[in-house]
Amino acid sequence: MASENTIADTVWSSRLGFILASASSAIGLGAIWKFPFWAGTNGGAAFIVPFLIFTFTIGIVLVMAECAMGRAGRGSAVHALKRVGGPVFGIVGGIAVLNAYIILTYYSVIGGWCVSYMADSFIGNVVNGDPKILSNHFNALVSNGTVNVFFMFLYLTATCAVVALGVEKGIEKVAKYLMPLLFVLMIFIIIRSLMMPGSWEGMQFLFSFNWEQVSGATILNAMGFTFFSLSLGAGIMVTYGSYLSSHTDIPGSSVWVAFLSTQAALLAGVMIIPAVFAFGMDPAAGTGLVFITIPMIFEHMPLADVLAAAFYVCLFIAAITSSVSLLEVVVAYLINEWGMRRRSATALCWITLFILASIQALSFSSLSWVEFNGMSLFDFSDYVCSNILMPLGGLSIALLAGWKAWPVMKEQMLAIRPHSVFTIGWIRLTISVLAPALVIVVLISGI
Ligand code: PHE
């Protein structure tokens, strides 16, 4: 994929390159940090079952639709959607770009926590068997505004550096090796945590479904998480799709992306929640879950510090590949619509994001009094992006691909294998009726 100052001529080197880049956008803090604590706070299976249903019905088809619209329109999210759907859809693209930008303001804060834990693990300062000490460690980090801003700054700078230099050579290669390592490490940690007494209770919590725990809010959260974890509704797949060569099979690639990202989330759940039960912690403990449980799981293992360091390096890579995709959407827009050069566009984002992400970072300490609807700025931004803007973005794409531009969508869906469940009829039904209906019903009932 070329990364210079044009968008229209950029093409992925291969189908695998596209799948890896999209999967590495999808697999990030959403799967590993957010999924376990959201499953924990939303009743386990009551959250997971709707999440899986959303992913394998509307999620996959929306990934296909975004890629298709991107490839047909060739350009930034604004440019591509305007070209395929007219000026109104250009505005939809603009909202998607804004959404990606807002996500970056809070995503970078958690990215900063990863950097901090990575640094601590390098000096052997993370692994510990005492949940109290570990939650104090986490709270000390989160409540110290200056330290938070500092680590966020490092993370944001790394993200901008990658985008400024070009995504192709750096991040794609790193992701190719470190993503598999992340999976291997997670499986290793899962085996270890399932051996701990009491951990099976966690498996029951995760996988035994109980209707009573399902509410409008859990379903809205599950839908929001589906969009978040598949990087939908924020222009990512439109932008990445626009770099696709004309003969890459979109349906097949999209299934891979969805499959990999769901696996990562489920594995992360199985890695964290059983350990939470084994250590007698509260699964609803919230944002600190991954940071508090992982160091405990490694305790009493040979090479504990090395394993912890490897885990946080992988988490950092998972996070930064997603941040890069978010920033790429904004930078592609600035290049395409404002005629900026890649480096200047990235620098502009770096400065403005630093200011806004600092405000997010302080929402855990000096700005914790700022509340919207009972939520901190951080939670509120995530709520609006994941549960409202991303589904609305998805809804607009569904209306475009399923109705206004169905011939374009159909043409882009070449190479559907005859025995695939994703027949053209199914895709049409899902994108034109099921996806809009589900999104509307869930949004209305959830809000
Ligand atoms: N899917 C990413 C994750 O799970 C987050 C993300 C959301 C990335 C939206 C791009 C767009 O961490």
From TrEMBL:
Top-rank taxon: Bacteria
InterPro entries in the cross-refs: Na/ntran_symport, SNS_sf, YocR/YhdH-like
SUPFAM superfamilies per record: SNF-like
Membrane topology: Multi-pass membrane protein
Parts of the chain that traverse the membrane: 12-33, 45-65, 86-109, 145-165, 177-195, 215-243, 255-279, 309-335, 347-368, 388-406, 426-446
Pfam families: SNF
Localization per record: Membrane
PROSITE patterns according to UniProt: NA_NEUROTRAN_SYMP_1, NA_NEUROTRAN_SYMP_3
Location (main, coarse): membrane
Keywords on record: Membrane, Symport, Transmembrane, Transmembrane helix, Transport
Ubl conjugation listed as a keyword: no
Family statement drawn from the similarity comment of this UniProt entry: Belongs to the sodium:neurotransmitter symporter (SNF) (TC 2.A.22) family.
Family annotation (NCBIfam families): Na_transp
Protein name per UniProt: Transporter
Annotated source species: Parasutterella secunda
